[in-house]
C-alpha cells in the first residue's frame, strides 16, 4: 500500500485565493482594510525571518501589516504600553507578539496583555479557556492548519482513536481541545502522549489518526504506526541542512494510508490560518461598532 501524500502547498494556494476574495469583499462592504500588527523585541534572526514571512502572507491576501520593533534592551513597561496602544487602535485588527522575548521580560504577562479580541495567535488564557469550553474566538494557527487539512481531505475523525504526540501549548494541548469539539471532523476519541509516556509505541500503534508534534527528528518509526493509519507530521527539524519531520517519512510511507510530508505538509497552511484569524478579528470589531 502506498500512502496518499497530502499536498499542503496546494491547499495553501487554494486557501490564499479564497481568502483574498473574502478580504476584498470585507473591504468593499466596510471601507476598512484588516491590519495585523507584529511586535518584536531584539534582532533574533529566526524571529525576523518569521515576521518577514508573515508580512508576505499578509500581502498575498491584501491584509495590511505593520511591524513594531523594539530594542533588545527594552523594558517590560515599554512593551506593555505599546500593546495597550495597539489594543486601543481601531485600525489594528490583530496583534501578534513574536517570541522569544528578551529574557528579562515576562513573556506570559506580555501575551496576556494582548486584548482577547485581537489575539489572533490565540495565546491569551481567555481565548484558550474559550477553546476548552467549546466556544473559541480564534483557533491557534498550527492546530487550526491541521484541522483545516483534515476537513479538506475529508478525513473521518469522529469516534476514531486519535493519538497526539506532544502536549505543548502551541500545538498538542489546543489540538486535543479542537478534536474534542462537538463539530464535524472532530468528536475524536483521544490519547495524548508526551515525554513521560511509558512505551510510546504501545499507544501510537493503536492510532487510527496519529498527530506528531514533539520536535524530535524521525522519532516515529515504521514499527510504531498502525497499518492504514492517517499520519499528520507537525514537526519541523533541521538535520544536516535539510528540513525533516518527527516521523520517519520514507519508512512509514508504504504502511500508512495518508501522510503529510515535511516540508510541504502542515507548514504552508499555518500562516494562512493567521490571516483567517485576522480577518475574523476585523469582522468582530466591525460588528461591535
How would you describe this structure to a colleague?
By secondary structure, this protein is α/β, with parallel strands linked by helices. It has 2 domains: 30-115, 3-Layer(aba) Sandwich (Rossmann fold); 141-267, NAD(P)-binding Rossmann-like Domain (Rossmann fold), CATH 3.40.50.720. It is built from 10 helices and 11 strands. Helix 2 (45-60) links the parallel strand 2 (35-41) and strand 3. It is globular, with a radius of gyration of 19 Å. The model has no long low-confidence stretch (mean pLDDT 96).
**Overall pLDDT level:** 96
Number of self-contained structural domains: 2
Q: Any idea what the radius of gyration is?
A: 19 Å
- Strand percentage lies at 15-25%
What is the CATH superfamily of the largest domain?
A: NAD(P)-binding Rossmann-like Domain
* String of helices and strands: EHEHEHEHHHEHEHEEEEHEH
Write the layout of secondary structure elements.
Layout: E1 4-5, H1 8-30, E2 35-41, H2 45-60, E3 64-70, H3 76-88, E4 94-97, H4 107-113, H5 125-132, H6 141-152, E5 161-165, H7 172-179, E6 189-193, H8 200-204, E7 209-212, E8 230-233, E9 237-239, E10 242-244, H9 249-252, E11 258-259, H10 267-288
Task: Describe the structure in brief.
The chain is of the alpha/beta class and 289 residues long. The chain is 41% helix and 16% strand.
Keywords:
six-stranded parallel sheet, three-stranded parallel sheet, 41% helix, alpha/beta, 2 domains, 289 residues, Rossmann fold, single chain
